[in-house]
Specification:
single chain; 7-stranded mixed β-sheet; 4 helices
């Protein structure tokens, strides 16, 4: 058990801030969290080792190829002693004429404030795509859930 009374708060802040960097679409900020020899395992099984490879893996996402992407946190589990977290999220994707969403989670391992491993898993091979009006209602629900979770943390 960690002797640092702030360890839980610090680890949770790292996880939330890292996720919010994705939502701001700031690849430089996202990359600032990774250690030089960090590992990013994509949901499709591709393993990227080192900052350069990880940045390359994120390039398509940050180029806007999938439209506007937003992660809404559903839950966070923390292992303070090991510096590990599991964040369960819903990812929404919005393009001009269509939108979609899917659930997933990231297993994150931080050492000395740097992300050394990020393993991503998702529940769908292909995100479900619905009419934009339907997805807007669903996104409003996710935002409400996200705000409720933030109030309880």
């Amino acid at each position: 058990m960690s002797n640092d009374p702030n360890a839980r708060t610090q680890l949770q802040k790292l996880v939330v801030d890292f996720t919010e960097a994705f939502n701001r679409e700031d690849i430089d900020e996202v990359m600032s969290y990774f250690s030089q020899d960090g590992i990013y395992d994509e949901f499709n099984g591709t393993r990227n080792i080192g900052k350069e490879a990880i940045r390359t893996a994120f390039q398509t996402q940050f180029s806007g190829a999938f439209g506007k992407m937003r992660f809404y946190t559903e839950d966070i589990f923390l292992d303070i002693d090991e510096g590990k977290a599991m964040i369960r999220w819903v990812l929404t994707l919005e393009e001009e004429n269509r939108s979609g969403a899917y659930r997933g989670l990231d297993l994150l391992h931080f050492t000395n404030g740097k992300l050394v491993e990020k393993h991503t898993y998702c529940k769908a091979k292909i995100p479900f795509i619905r009419k934009k009006e339907e997805m807007t209602k669903l996104e409003d629900l996710f935002i409400k859930l996200f705000n409720d979770i933030q109030l309880t943390c």
